[in-house]
Known about the structure:
Order of helices and strands: HEEEEHEEEEH
CATH topology: Nucleoside Triphosphate Pyrophosphohydrolase
Number of domains: 1
Number of strands: 8
Structural class: alpha+beta
Amino acid sequence: MGYIMDLRKIVGSRPLIMAGACVILVNSNNELLLQLRKDNNCWGLAGGSLEIGESLEQVAKRELHEETGLTANILSLFNVYSGEDFYYKYPHGDEVYNVVTAYICRDYEGVLRTDENEVEELKYFKLTEIPSNISPPDLPIIKEFLQKSFLS
């Protein structure tokens, strides 16, 4: 998160527009991978902010690997999100308006490994057993994914 951290040195905690990507990773048992975040103690998707020169797909793959140890072979665009629902104030006070590109990944490789700095736990959840304490910026994305999963 070098670019955002550099901006924070100039603007402090004021709201920033933060572009990024997340990955809805689903295993062969049709279970959703979630991470228990250390910063807010909520479950969420692997993802993060765009660095200068990166594509959105590159940030999705990078963040997935950094936070879970898994490598995405194929990402499929799910949706792009922005607006008031994607305002977030981090526990330490920084404010952002997220612009999030969500990808679905069902083709991946590697062994689960938690990022000790950001992730408390990684766990696959059945789509009918998603925990209630979902990280606020991920909640609308997960809700839409679940809704579309049960409609198909």
